[in-house]
Amino acid sequence: MSDVDAFRAEVRAWLDAHVPRDLRGATLADADDPARLAALRAWNAALADAGYAGLAWPAEYGGRAASVEEQVVLAEELSRAEAPPSLNPIGLSNIAPAIMTYGTDAQRARHLRRMLRADDIWCQGFSEPDAGSDLASLRTSAVLDGDHFVVNGQKVWTTLGHVADWCELLVRTHPSAPKHKGISALLVDMTLPGIEVQPLVTITGDREFNALFFTDVRVPVECLLGPVNEGWRVAVTTLANERAGVANLHLSHGKKLARVLAAASANGAASDAVDRQRLASAVTDHRLLELLAGRAVSRAAAGQPPGPEGSLAKLVWSLAGQDLAETAGAVLGEEGLAGAWGRDALYSRSLTIAGGTTEVNKNLLAERILGLPRDVAPPS
Ligand SMILES: Cc1cc2nc3c(=O)[nH]c(=O)nc-3n(C[C@H](O)[C@H](O)[C@H](O)COP(=O)(O)OP(=O)(O)OC[C@H]3O[C@@H](n4cnc5c(N)ncnc54)[C@H](O)[C@@H]3O)c2cc1C
Question: What is the pLDDT of residue 152?
Fold first, then answer.
């Protein structure tokens, strides 16, 4: 048995013995219920204590420095076992790499292990009402006053903000500098006085993201992440890792596809010519996603940094997710519009916005892969 096969057997046995039955198939929306949140925190801690969280992280931060193949195996086995989600999807994939790259020793020691166990839940306070795709236009201000930054402003769409203990917050520290040069990143304790969190209810009826309001919030200077006014570099590291986390996207998509195919076979839809076309197209999309994931994995295995392919995979995955939800509605009739399928159809609308919109991704692909001229920036 190869090392990777042995690792798969070990992980599978552990998950079969430890995934709590009542949390199988749980989603992040469950974090809204305090009892479910406590159970999810306990699950996250158990997974980390067993050495199955932050697999790629260096051992000094609680990881295993595992190979890319082992990371893929873990993702596949977590999906197979219907394991509950990480409470730190943004923390582990986006914020931790930024802390590893730019953090002080004290920041790494304070935050990384606690994030791994979900002792602390993290949110990403980047977007503002007038700064989404054009993130560098952000206006939330931080003014140095002795050994504190005083923060004022508003963030929006902050996923998990209502349960978060900490926030990676982008603020403007140099108002007269060119807009990319006057930004800093702060690690903000969400219990500080002056922070108000207003949950936003989505079309699915869930509370998943929030508006955050900051009024004279005093953040200690030792919470600055990276050099002052160099926060754009920190943000780019954070977002590059978000777009690089594409290798697993096909797993959840493949599960939904299998359920649609099984239901379509059972209800006779699979013999209708138009439905068959839609289903064949969904299968093709899934295969394309698998191949894109394979490419991202090969790059990582060869020691190469994440490339613009992450934008391509995100684009294909988000459009395929919306198509699959619509296909389910078309071939499953009422069943495809109710319950979990109905929720999925509504939720899928957000896929082409979150983590970079379709239009912005197409611009990135045009410039970085096709080598076309840069997008014309609107006059500021
Ligand atoms: C489910 C979900 C979770 C999110 N979680 C977080 C989070 O945790 N933290 C956080 O900070 N943010 C989060 N966001 C916000 C997300 O990053 C922004 O919604 C996204 O960056 C788009 O910004 P915007 O909504 O302000 O739209 P805008 O940037 O105002 O865009 C409006 C429209 O204009 C188009 N557009 C904009 N610029 C261009 C251009 N140059 N060329 C062509 N078209 C353009 C866009 O594609 C879009 O269709 C989340 C969003 C969603 C949907």
Answer: 98
Euclidean distance between CA atoms 212 and 209, whole angstroms: 10
Instruction: Note if the pTM is more than 0.90.
Output: yes
Run of H or E residues at 10: helix 3-18
pLDDT at 247: 67
How many A from CA of 223 to the centre of ligand 1?
27
Half-sphere exposure of 23 (CA within 13 A, CB side): 25
Ligand 1 center from residue 127 Cα (angstroms):
8
Q: DSSP for 134-192?
A: SGGG---EEEEETTEEEEEEEE---TTTTT-SEEEEEEES-TTS-GGGSEEEEEEETTS
What domains does the chain contain, in order, with CATH numbers?
Answer: 3-87 (no CATH), 122-229 (2.40.110.10), 245-368 (1.20.140.10)
Q: Which of 353, 364, 374, 380 gets mutated to test ligand 1 (max ligand atoms within 8 A of its CB)?
A: 353
Here the tokens at position 132 are 């989404």
Q: In this predicted structure, what is the pLDDT of residue 88?
A: 96
Specify the residue with its C-alpha closest to ligand 1, atom 2. 354
pLDDT at 378: 60
Report CA(359)–ligand 1 centroid distance (Å): 10
Looking at residue 93, its pLDDT comes to: 87
Which ligand 1 atom lies nearest to the CA of residue 134? 29
Mean pLDDT, contiguous 10-residue spans, the chain (380 residues): 91 97 89 95 96 90 88 92 94 93 97 97 97 96 98 97 97 96 98 97 90 98 97 86 67 91 87 90 94 84 78 90 93 84 92 92 91 76
Q: Rounded distance, CA 348 to CA 202, Å?
A: 12
242 is catalytic: yes
DSSP code per residue over 36-74: HHHHHHHHHHHHHHTT-SSTTS-GGGT-----HHHHHHH
- Res 238: pLDDT: 76
DSSP state letters, 311-378:
HHHHHHHHHHHHHHHHHHHHHHGGGGGSHHHHHHHHHGGGGGTTTS-HHHHHHHHHHHTS-PPPPPPP
Residues 204-218: b if buried by 16+ CB within 10 A, e if exposed = bebbbbbbbbbeebe
